Amino acid sequence: MPSEAFTRGPDGSSRGGPLAGVRVVELASLAPAPFGCMVLADLGADVVRVDRPDGPGAGRLAAPSAGPLQRGRRLTALDLKSPAGVADLLRLVERADVLVEAYRPGVAERLGFGPDVCRDRNPRLVYARMTGWGQDGPLAARAGHDIDYIAVAGALEPLGRAGERPHAPLNLIGDFAGGGMLLAVGVLAALLERERSGLGQVVDAAMVDGSALLTSFLHGLLGTGLWAAPRGRNLLDGGAPFYDTYATADGGFMAVGALEPAFYGELLTGLGLADAGLPHQYDPSGWDELRRRLTERFAERTRDEWTAIFADRDACVAPVLAPGDAYRHPHNAARGTFVEVAGEVQPAPAPRFDRTPTDPPIPAPDPERDVSPVEEILTAWS
User: Fold this and answer.
1) Claim: this prediction has a pTM higher than 0.85
2) Which of 42, 88, 175, 237 is catalytic?
3) What is the reported pLDDT for 61?
């Protein structure tokens, strides 16, 4: 890695963090790769996003040019379908530590900047490839989205209420956890290995692989027979009434995760049901009755009232907060879990480091104002 103990921000200021001095070239794309590159930028890497000359894309699902996923970047624009644009990209590659691309397999090779070409220019380059299906396999060339990848990975089928069809949890599993975060982990592992070997390598980050990896705990339960009931009838999928959500009097919700007997006892005490003669916690035959009683009791008070009641109890009960309200929670406020970036509340960089703390995020660059010529970036990277 470069020896500098800092990264130069887009405004020329020095920025710290554990990845300070690491140089990343990101070819603009949709959500998974930008999220992975946001994580790298949050941790101090100097990330340059390469847009098309006419902007990051067109149409309803164009790559967004602003918001949290695009923060912390430099910005340049290259026509990668032209020899001149590819030549400029390869000049950046010569000085970069990481290249991130999210094309379908074979596209980068056809355009003239595949792994072999880049390796010839920079043997130390970590070439990170973000796809849905991976670089090989029968589906490698096929289109897809988060819901398709998690379906084939076995991560979608368990999600949903009993007797209902599977329900996708936004695009959190495939795009972000199984995609962008896996990409960032792969890049970090390759950079660490490069310190021993002196050589870069290709990182094949596939959302279907990452989504399958996220089901490791579930596979452990399957192997021991602890996940045997149909969807919505198991311990952690809403089947157990003491691991579920409940509506409150004001239309809000409370989340209950009182798995252990001690926490379950605190739950019943907080609800005023400790002496109500309820069915035994782990007797599935009594779960319908237990759910009915919990539903009735939670409906008697507002979310804030229940939050106050359980504030000092180890009952594993918490208010269900909307994304736009989460920053107001006292715990999140005390920790600085959310930060304000250019007037917008966003999740803060994570994790945290005691010796090389991360700096506050830099706002996303403006494609109309902040496009840097390649020569300017090369000078900064000299």
Assistant:
1) yes
2) 175
3) 54
